[in-house]
Design brief:
The protein is of the alpha+beta class. It is 30% helix and 8% strand. The chain has a two-stranded antiparallel ribbon. Strands 3-8 form a two-stranded antiparallel ribbon. A two-stranded antiparallel ribbon has the order 4-7. The protein is globular.
Length: 298
């Protein structure tokens, strides 16, 4: 992996100007264009009913309006389709971080029986693109999807009028009392790590269980049970519903959940604990989160 200044792309304000790109898949406009066409191509699904864009809507920051979007034949998995913005800077992919490159990631939904359910060889035959070229093109297109130049970015770059007074208070809550920046850090507002925030925990009396084992499914380690990757907060206003399972419909629900300290259990991340935000602090925090919506490249 090399970090290069991408001459063919305009990096929005607020993002790292240097983009990690594999040496064997440097970004070109031709690959972006091919990847965009493949992203919208329904032939990549078994019954030709869905494409990548079916679950990753550009108008919703390349996320979905449903908690879990149906794949071919109406089949459903159990995880929400995350926003695809700024994944060029991602260090792992999928909610459980099971792959380490976009080139790997983009092919898995095609073969997944709950999503597109088509063999990679058949997908290649249908669209007339060799598998390696298909992988590189889709990955390159995803790398080109960026969000920046939000009111927050303009504010921290000197425009003191870019954030409302309420949003500025929300920024203080975000960095201070709310402790949101413990996990949501950097230009993308994510540490790219996996944490157990209690969302997958279903209490039953004095006991409970995980509805989704998360990272634990991949590693088999007890301490990884119920852990999921920190999502970006950029474009959060456009990417409801929230959490790995889409279980929260609004930012108010998300803030209330963390304010009360989440669902308590032995593996809960210690950073998740009761906060005690006032009603005005909650509103201010949400105003700040909305200030992270900016310009999205498509």
């Amino acid at each position: 992996m090399v970090r290069v200044l991408i001459a063919v792309l305009v990096i929005p304000l607020g993002l790292d100007l240097y983009v990690p790109v594999p040496e064997e898949n440097l970004i070109t406009l031709e690959k972006i264009d091919l990847g965009r066409r493949l992203f919208h191509d329904r032939r990549l699904s078994r019954d030709q009913s869905v494409a990548c864009v079916s679950c990753h809507d550009p108008d919703r920051a390349f996320s979905t309006a449903e908690a879990v979007t149906p794949g071919v034949f109406g089949r459903r998995g159990k995880r929400n389709a995350p926003a695809l913005i700024n994944r060029a800077w991602g260090r792992s992919f999928f909610w459980d971080a099971r792959v380490g490159t976009l080139e790997e990631q983009v092919l898995q939904p095609i073969e997944d029986s709950k999503e597109m359910d088509l063999s990679i060889d058949e997908a290649s035959r249908r669209v007339g693109v060799a598998v390696p070229d298909m992988s590189r093109a889709l990955a390159t297109y995803i790398r080109s999807i960026m969000s920046g130049n939000a009111p927050y970015d303009r504010f921290v770059n000197g425009d003191r009028t870019a954030l409302s007074a309420e949003a500025q208070i929300g920024l203080q809550v975000f960095r201070g009392k709310g402790n949101c920046s413990a996990c949501h850090v950097g230009p993308n507002f994510t540490d790219e790590k996996l944490h157990n925030t209690g969302i997958a925990w279903a209490a039953a009396g004095t006991t409970g269980s995980f509805l989704d084992e998360g990272r634990g499914t991949i590693t088999g380690r007890p301490e990884d049970r119920g852990a999921f990757k920190t999502p970006t907060l950029r474009e959060i206003e456009r990417s409801a519903p929230y959490m790995h399972d889409g279980s929260f419909a609004s930012l108010h629900e998300v803030v209330d959940y963390y304010d009360r300290g989440g669902n308590r259990h032995a593996l809960l991340n210690p950073e998740v604990r009761p906060i005690g935000l006032t009603t005005s602090e909650k509103h201010a925090l949400i105003a700040f989160l909305r200030s992270l919506s900016g310009n999205i490249t498509r």
